[in-house]
C-alpha cells in the first residue's frame, strides 16, 4: 500500500514595504513593494533564515531611501522638464500670491536653458540657478531681494515629491532639491529696521529732488515723486499707507488727510487723521493741478505707477507692485546718501575691494521726520509726534482721548509744524529776496520744499 507524502506549505512573511516568501527550491525571495522606491527583488540562498532575510530587506530600504534619486523616481523625472513642473505648480496652487506667481514667470523668462532641462538633470539645474543669481547680482539687485524672488521656486521643490510633482506623476517620487547645494544670499544682520534707520541732515532732501529731476523722464513723474517724498517727510506715514491713499481721503476745507483702516499694514497702525500744513497744501494742490480730471477723481489713488494705470485703463486686474521701492532705489543711487556697512568690531566692510554701501531707504524718510519734529525748530511733544508715528495710539487710554479730540490735536500739530517751517523759511531768505542753497542746487529745489508761500508772506510784510 502506497502512502502519499503531504506537501509542506511554503512559508510567507511580510514587513513594512516588503515581503519575504519561500520558493519551492528552499531559497528565500525578498520583494520590495514601495511606490516611492519602486519594485526590487533579492534572491537569498537556500538555508537562509527568515531573521537574516528581514535584516537584508530593511537594509535595502535604507539604501534606497538614502540614495540620491531612487530608480523609479529617476524614470519618472526623465519624462518632465523644470518648465513643466513650474506650470503644474502654478495650476496646482490656486491661492498663490500674485507676487510669487510673477517671480516664477520672471525666472522662466530669463532661464530658458535651465527650464528646458529634465528633472533628472540635477547638476545642470543647480548650475543654471547659480548663474541666474550671479547675473542678478551683476544687475545691482540687492542680494536678499534675489533670495525673496527665488522663494516660490524653493517652496515648489520642497513639496514636489510629496505632491507627486503636482499632478504630473501618479505616484510619489523623490526629487533632489537644488537649493540644498546653493548658497543663497541671506538678509544681513544690519538690515533690520533699527540698523538701517538713517536720518537726513537739514536740506539733504534737496539731493533727492535733484536726483528725481535727473531720473524721471517727464514733468508729471517728477512732481509725483517730489510730492511723495515731501508728504512722507511731513506726515510720517509709512510708504504702504501713502500708496493706498485716494484723493477722496483729502479734506481740503478742514486741511486733513483721512487714513482709512484698510490702508494700515498688518500690525502697523497709523493715525486716523493727519494734518495738512501750508507747505504740504502747496505741493498737493500743485500735483493735483498737474493731473488729468480722470486721475484726480475721488476714488483714484494719489500715487500710481505707470503699469497700474495701464492695467486700470485697459480693464486688466491690478497687480501688487514694488514700483516705489524699485524707483526710489534708482533715484537714491544718483546721490551720495549712504553709509558704510560695519561689522561687530565697528570696522568698515569691504567686498571685492569696494566698500559695502547701505543706501538710504524710503522708510528712513519717516525716521527723518520723527527726528526733526523732536528737535528745533519744531519741538513737538512726545504725544504729538507719537500720534503721527502711530505709536501712541496703541495705548487704550490715549486712544480714547484721540477719538474725541483728533481734530484739536491735528490743529495743534499743524500749528507747531508751520511755526517751525516759518523759522526755516526766514533762514533761507537772502537780503534781495532770493534763496540761498547750502548744496548749490537751483531755486526750483526750494520751490519743491514748499517754502515759497512763506517767502511771499515775508516779502509782503
Description:
The chain has 461 residues and is of the alpha+beta class. The protein has three domains: 56 residues, no CATH class; 112 residues, Orthogonal Bundle (DNA polymerase, domain 1), CATH 1.10.150; 256 residues, Orthogonal Bundle (hpI Integrase, Chain A). The protein is 48% helix and 8% strand. The strands form four sheets. The chain has a four-stranded antiparallel β-sheet, with helices on one face. Helix 10 packs antiparallel against helix 12. The chain is elongated. The N and C termini lie far apart (142 Å).
How do you describe this structure in short?
With 461 residues, this protein is α+β, with helices and mostly antiparallel strands. It folds into three domains: 12-67, no CATH class; 76-187, DNA polymerase, domain 1 (Orthogonal Bundle); 205-460, Intergrase catalytic core (hpI Integrase, Chain A, Orthogonal Bundle).
Number of strands: 11
Approximate strand percentage: 5-15%
Q: Approximately how much helix is present in the residues?
A: 40-55%
Task: List the total number of helices.
Answer: 19
What CATH calls the topology of the largest domain is: hpI Integrase, Chain A
The spatial strand order of the largest sheet comes to 1-2-3-4
Number of domains: 3
Any idea what the CATH architecture of the largest domain is? Orthogonal Bundle
| Overall pLDDT | 78
N-end to C-end Cα span: 142 Å
CATH superfamily of the largest domain: Intergrase catalytic core
Low-confidence stretches: 189-195, 392-403, 430-448, 457-461
In N-to-C order, the SSE pattern is: EEEEHHHHHHHHHHHEEEHHHEEEEHHHHH
Radius of gyration, in Å, reads: 33 Å
CATH classification, class level of the largest domain? Mainly Alpha
The chain-level structural class is alpha+beta
Instruction: Give the overall shape.
Output: elongated
